[in-house]
Amino acid sequence: MAANKDNRVYIEDLSGHVGEEVTVKGWLYNKRSGGKIQFLLVRDGTGIVQAVMLKNEVSPAHFELAEKLTQESSIEVTGLVRTDQRAPGGVELTVTSLALVHLAQEYPITPKEHGIEFLMDHRHLWLRSSRQHAILRIRSEIIRLCRQFFDERGFTLVDSPILTPASVEGTTTLFETDYFEEKAYLSQSGQLYAEAAAMALGKVYCFGPTFRAEKSKTRRHLMEFWMIEPEVAYNTSADNMALQEAFVSFVVQEVLKRRRAELAVLERDVNKLAGVVPPFPRLSYDEAVAVLKENGSDIQWGDDFGADDETLLSSRYDKPLIVYNYPAAIKAFYMQPDPQRPEVALCNDMLAPEGYGEIIGGGQRIHELELLEERIRQHGLPEENYRWYLDLRRYGSVPHAGFGMGIERFVAWICGLHHVRETIPFPRLLNRIYP
Ligand code: 4AD
Ligand code: MG
After folding, report:
1. Is the Cβ atom of 404 under 6 angstroms away from ligand 1?
2. Which value, to the nearest 10 degrees, does the dihedral of the CA atoms of residues 388, 224, 219, 171 take?
């Protein structure tokens, strides 16, 4: 049974076709039946519409087909578009004909509650639910806005390689692979390549998947996550923090404007996001340690913050908190020391409010050759793999700074999700690479 007329319209566009007969191509989301009437909830990826089928207005074959439709069966529904103020998009369809594309087998995900492991095992199907649609659309919007922010400011997108011989963020979280008898790793960060590109193009950013073999099972860690990393020649750490503030507020405010409906599906308290505008509160690492001690933490100067410390610090503010100038010893090898106090690095993290933890890490990079060589040795890194990186300090070296923002942690915060596993279509978690 084919729909007799192919005037295909997407559900999100139906309100522009009131009074017309159109065809919606999608899947059966849910169904309610009463003897002489069928209410078919149809989704097509752009929205959900209720299609009402009256027994005495369609052929018996079409009505019988509607009766046997199972959840997620693929269908083409032809009908008259009518306004209905109670319906989600303000419209519904009065069905004139129905065509089956594929009758779905018994669908494993039903409107009842399911456990998280079951849902993760069925992630490929779970993506079809309204809540996941909302999250994935917000993710897509956030990525678009991140690019827009930098594109509009004259940054050039420079893609960094995924296979690399060099570690950036320590050697304990590397995914190692064989590269024709040479050792290679999956990139932990595109930063070192972005630095080379910044010396060529001034203002650049890279954006791509990054990998960390994190042995920790937390609600903030993925093995594979996406990171946007701007890098700017001649920027100082202060410039770098100002850029982060402008960037984060731009993305938050634009998402609020453009994705209200999706945030409502997630029941996100948007008032908590509305105030995310510059200036953001700032604490030096020293001040942050003092605050933690006052609140009963046994942290000592020189220790890194744990998740609880970060939550304690950031929950004191409604906006993201910038913590700057951490001890050099707990940060990566490339961090520029403060000339007045070489034991601290000119770097910062940004901690999201409401306990979402670190969303940004960044800082000023060492631009002096001898110091960088010394740090590479101190960190036990194989110098031959960093020859090219050291070259950047041989030929027109300048101060420069940049940062990396993890997309999934950012999405978790904006969407108000407890765990990062729902912020990426197919999460790679400790002990999970399926599906
Ligand atoms: O602080 P990180 O390790 O910094 C860097 O990688 C720098 N090279 C970036 C730069 O300066 N260009 O990571 C940056 C951000 C974190 O703040 C966090 O948002 C995210 O990347 N991130 C993770 N997100 C999910 N799962 C993980 N395992 C993550 N590790 C880091
Ligand atoms: Mg970090």
Report:
1. yes
2. -40
- What's the order of all strands across the beta sheet hosting 282-284? 156-157, 203-211, 224-233, 400-406, 357-364, 347-352, 321-324, 282-284
User: Exposed, middle or buried: residue 300 (CB in 10 Å: 0-12, 13-18, 19+)?
Assistant: exposed
- CB-CB contact of 141 with 415 (8 Å): no
The atom of ligand 1 lying closest to the CA of 409 is 19
pLDDT digits (tens, 9 = 90+) for 371-388: 999 999 999 999 999 999
Whether the CB of 169 sits within 6 Å of ligand 1: yes
Domains by residue range for the chain, with CATH:
11-102 (2.40.50.140), 123-422 (3.30.930.10)
CA of 62 to the centre of ligand 1 (A): 54
Distance set, CA 210 to CA 56, 169, 219, 240, 404 (Å)? 58, 11, 18, 22, 11
Point out the ligand nearest to the CA of residue 330.
Answer: 2
- The H or E element that residue 313 is part of is helix 307-314
Q: What are the counts of helices (DSSP H) followed by strands (DSSP E) for the chain? A: 13, 18
258: confidence class by pLDDT, cuts 50, 70, 90: very high
Tell me the pairing of strands 37-43 and 21-34: antiparallel
Q: How far apart are CA 414 and CA 410, in angstroms?
A: 6
Cβ density class 46-80: b for 16+ within 10 Å, e for less: bbbbbbbbebebbeeebbebbeebebbbebbbbbb
Predicted TM-score (pTM) of this structure: 0.96
**Beta-strand pair 156-157/203-211:** parallel
Q: How far is CA 425 from CA 26, 74, 120, 255, in A?
A: 20, 22, 11, 19
* Interval 11-21: pLDDT, tens: 999 999 999 99
Residue closest by Cα to atom 13 of ligand 1? 361
In a 13 Å sphere around the CA of 199, the CA atoms on its Cβ side amount to 19
Q: Are 59 and 95 in contact (CB under 8 A)?
A: no
d(CA 253, CA 239): 21
Tell me: cis bond preceding 435? Omega within 30 of 0 counts: yes
Beta strands in 234-325 (DSSP E): 282-284, 321-324
**Residues, beta carbon < 5 Å, ion ligand 2:** 361
Cα distance between residue 8 and residue 61, in whole Å = 22
Q: Are 42 and 29 in contact (CB under 8 A)?
A: yes
